[in-house]
Fold this sequence. Notes:
Low-confidence stretches: 4-16
Shape: globular
Mean pLDDT: 93
Distance between the termini: 58 Å
Number of strands: 10
Amino acid sequence: xxxxxxxxxxxxxxxxxxxxxxxxxxxxxxxxxxxxxxxxxxxxxxxxxxxxxxxxxxxxxxxxxxxxxxxxxxxxxxxxxxxxxxxxxxxxxxxxxxxxxxxxxxxxxxxxxxxxxxxxxxxxxxxxxxxxxxxxxxxxxxxxxxxxxxxxxxxxxxxxxxxxxxxxxxxxxxxxxxxxxxxxxxxxxxxxxxxxxxxxxxxxxxxxxxxxxxxxxxxxxxxxxxxxxxxxxxxxxxxxxxxxxxxxxxxxxxxxxxxxxxxxxxxxxxxxxxxxxxxxxxxxxxxxxxxxxxxxxxxxxxxxxxxxxxxxxxxx
Length: 316
């Protein structure tokens, strides 16, 4: 009897996996349309439809730095019909800044980190600072005076500044905004001194000559900014920072469904019609395995927890 039940269970699981997707799949994006995370979701959506069949629908659920959408996903059925495309915030930062209704390390089936992109320290074109040497010399001569704008407390650009200050023994004035748009407006208007802005956001203004890039937070120089040194090569260690977008699902989806999703996402990101466009925007293709994503999340979770606690960082 036990063997019969096992056989029936295995058959049902296989049938379910083979039939999936048998109804529309909702891709929850926990931010408004138009940002980097939404862009990645909308890049993947048609390719997943082509490769897997069925219908994939993007549902933007913004609010509370991405945690509203994250909580919604963790309450959904683990049948493969709800997916989560998000930046690092809900996965490894928000749980250390605010009370969330989910366990970021236990309530998701992690499928893959799709892409990552470094931050770049930018100053207005009219700034007197022409290099990182200028910035550091000014900071040491004028401690706590240089203003660093960010898209909000606990954002990637804010945490990068905190990490930079910690690693260099310098200080600055953190100026948090409600989003990247106001940061860009005040940078271009010379209202703030600088920002560790995501490369995707900064590139058009750098190329247009309105912002000057002084350093990048990737391990090596970016091919998009070959003349801009990395913090690492400038001797500022352990300051490699990437914003990243990943795909996950509610905990417990069928293993075969997860495997099909991972393979389809990896193929989509490396599609010759897509990959060059993402690279041109400053994204680096990651497409790692669920196991690699799990190890990566654990490391990132502890890294940002340690920084947030040691620097006394609070949410907005």
